[in-house]
Amino acid sequence: MKKTLLLLCLLLCTTAYAQKKIKVACVGNSVTYGAGIDNREVNSYPAQLQHMLGEDYEVMNFGKSGATLLNKGHRPYREQEEYKAALDFAGDLVVIHLGLNDTDPRNWPNYRDNFVSDYLALINSFRQANPDCRIWICRMTPISHRHPRFKSGTRDWYWMEQMAIEEIARLADTGLIDLQAGLYNRPDLLPDALHPTAEGAGILAKTIYQKLTGNYGGLQMPVTYSDNMVLQREKPLPVSGTANAGEKVTVQIAGQKKETVTASNGKWSVTLDPMQAGGPYELTIEASLPTEKKNKKKTTASQKLTYKDVLVGEVWLCSGQSNMAFRVDELVDSQRKELTGYAGKQPQIRLFNMEPRWFTNAVEWDEAVMDSLNRLQYYHDTQWTVCNEQTADRFSAVAFSFGQMLSDSLQVPVGLILNAVGGSGTEAWIDRKTLEFDFTDILYNWTENDFIQDWVRGRAALNIKKSTNKQQRHPYEPCYLYETGIEPLQQYPIRGIIWYQGESNAQNIETHERLFPLLVNSWRENWQEELPFYYVQLSSIDRPSWTWFRDSQRRMMQTIPNCGMAVSSDRGDSLNVHPRYKREIGERLARWALNQTYGHRLTPSGPLFRSVEFKDDAAYITFDYAEGLHTSDGQPIRTFEIAEYDGLFVPAEAEIVDGKVKVRNDKIARPQLVRYGWQPFTRANLVNGDELPASTFRSKE
Q1: Angle at 608 between CA 593 and CA 592, to 5 degrees
Q2: By CB neighbour count within 10 A (0-12 exposed, 13-18 middle, 19+ buried), where does 472 fall?
Q3: For the chain, how many helices (H) and strands (E)?
Q4: Cα radius of gyration (the chain)
Q5: Which uninterrupted H or E stretch holds 108?
Q6: Full DSSP string of 255-324
Q7: CA distance 386 to 348
Q8: Residue 395 and residue 401: Cα distance in Å, rounded?
């Protein structure tokens, strides 16, 4: 009898132990509570986390709306009933998300010195409640620019707190969960600029689930990895991806083997030694649990990705709007035949064509497709393809011409990543943090914002109006194309960037002069390198603002380091914003790259205005890249104008004298200003010995 009772007792104890659930305490503010979410008992992120973790876990929501981390704040969390209940719960796993309300002007300006000590004390209190608990603190969810206090202090205090939270995690030896990253690029999921929707809460729940379990969905690589890819030569080559936490990752190619262990955030990275041009190679990436951990996991199988026909050479990103997207099959027949004929013989050129899932004109804007789309998957899934007549035909004419000249000159494989969206403004290609700090006003009410060109706003507003989903994001929205088209490249190693855009910003030169340097710096910071950035000056067309815009582009080349500008005004069309002659434009971009990036001895540009000297009733103009000055058609030099007073320009005669251009008009006795090609559509004809056209320009007063 005693033996039977003992066995029964042991059985009951064993069953009770087996049924014991892991307790998860979600501590925080209104975002944790689920404020603003319909049916928050089901849709708040703690509730969704419970569903993801399953029946072996017990997740409790201890969120308090308006709560502050600061003990002297306007609603200290440690004085709330939710805090006391959280301590009594004594969770095995504790997730703390506090700090948003501390950005209130009643709090941070007065008590910021207490933030670290108050947070450490809060962490310690949970450890006292359960000495065996594991604690994670969270980088805060975003506060959108639409928040009423954003510019008056909240923006700046928010980032100060984020830095403090990272330091606190180190000091307290807690885990750190990044709740900002998943929502930072999703203002559509923060309708009141602070509280996420149910979909947004789902992103937070998934982020926490991954961190608690280490399950990141196994081995995954960025979109740019596929068969036929080109890897950048002669640089240390970072290869990065995601895998389950703690898994060993092995990368092998061309006799190199690099290993690392996936971090707790699911990320891993190795750096291959610089490689010389060549191939084809096979790149293999394998993730597996270390031997000592295999017996502790249900799944022990490794995952392996193999990429075949991999080349090593030169990789360039080709981006902008419709004139960069303009395809080879849209060229004039003679240029199309030349390029497609070449394409069929060049398997060393590889193309990565990021085509949008939908476009922005009235025909392409399909509600059914648009509303079913993940709003951060604007582009079709794509892969690297070998260059042939068919793939080249659908590729950018400018980019392909650029790649052809590089391939011929360098005799190495060339990879071209195309990411261009018709009608897009510069502001759509800049990262969010840059605009939040350096041009916040352009983010507000963007479809009614005068910083953005009226037809761009008008088309976007019409598209959005047609959508049944009023939260649908539009590709012209500031930051959107950076978030959907640049970030997914995951810093894929490249040599440089070519860019053809500006038509959608030409109405406001001063705004573009602020935006364009921000874009260049934004992309360079993304790749953590001062990449060469070569861009196209707008062509000729009967649009009045384009004279000033072209000159603005010319002047910015003098202030932005490691850049160059290809002139296209001689290949313009007075009525068509998409001229059908593009091969020369790609080759002019390639000249900049060959000269400046690769050190080849060839002229990178047509004549560029350097200076002017006024003497003897004439202007004597000095140009860079002026060797062999002459006219393209054998006619006298056209389109120079001269003035004594700004706004009173008159046509002038011009001639080449000792390598300079002498400009005069008998009626102007004391010239003070000179300009060239100063018409929206110009027939300017000055070129250098390489038949490269001079840029239009205007001298300063």
Answers
A1: 5
A2: middle
A3: 22, 28
A4: 30
A5: helix 108-111
A6: TEEEEEE--TTSEEEEEEPP--SEEEEEEEEEEE--HHHHTTSS----EEEEEEEEEEEEEEEEEESHHH
A7: 8
A8: 10
Q: Are 155 and 114 in contact (CB under 8 A)?
A: no
Query: What is the rounded distance in angstroms from the CA atom of residue 389 to the CA atom of residue 395?
Result: 10
N residues, the chain: 701
| Separation between Cα atoms, residue 244 and residue 293, nearest integer Å | 13
Expressed in angstroms, the distance from the first to the final Cα of the chain is 110
Find, among 155, 103, 140, the residue nearest to 439 by Cα: 155
CA distances, 630 to each of 251, 264, 593, 658, 681 (Å): 56, 65, 25, 12, 21
Say whether pLDDT at 294 is over 70: no
Task: Answer yes or no: are the C-beta atoms of 29 and 97 closer than 8 Å.
Answer: yes
Residues near 261 by Cβ (< 8 Å), separated by ≥ 6?
Answer: 246, 247, 248, 249, 268, 290
Cβ proximity of 485 and 354 under 8 Å = yes
DSSP 429: G
Residue 255 has pLDDT above 60, yes or no: yes
Backbone angles phi, psi at 681, to 5 degrees: -110, 115
Residue pLDDT, tens place only, 328-376: 999 999 999 999 998 888 889 999 999 987 776 544 545 434 444 455 5
Cβ(98)–Cβ(177) below 8 Å: no
Helix (H, G, I), strand (E, B) or coil at 228: coil
| pTM beyond 0.90 | yes
CA separation for the pair 629, 45 (Å, rounded)? 69
Segment 233-236 long-range contacts (CB within 8 Å, at least 24 positions apart): 233/274, 233/275, 233/276, 233/277, 233/312, 233/313, 233/314, 233/412, 234/274, 234/275, 234/276, 234/277, 235/274, 235/493, 236/271, 236/272, 236/273, 236/274
- Distance (Å, rounded) from C-alpha 643 to C-alpha 181? 55
Confirm if 183 and 189 have CB atoms less than 8 A apart: yes
| Torsion, CA 566, CA 569, CA 570, CA 572, rounded to 10 | 120
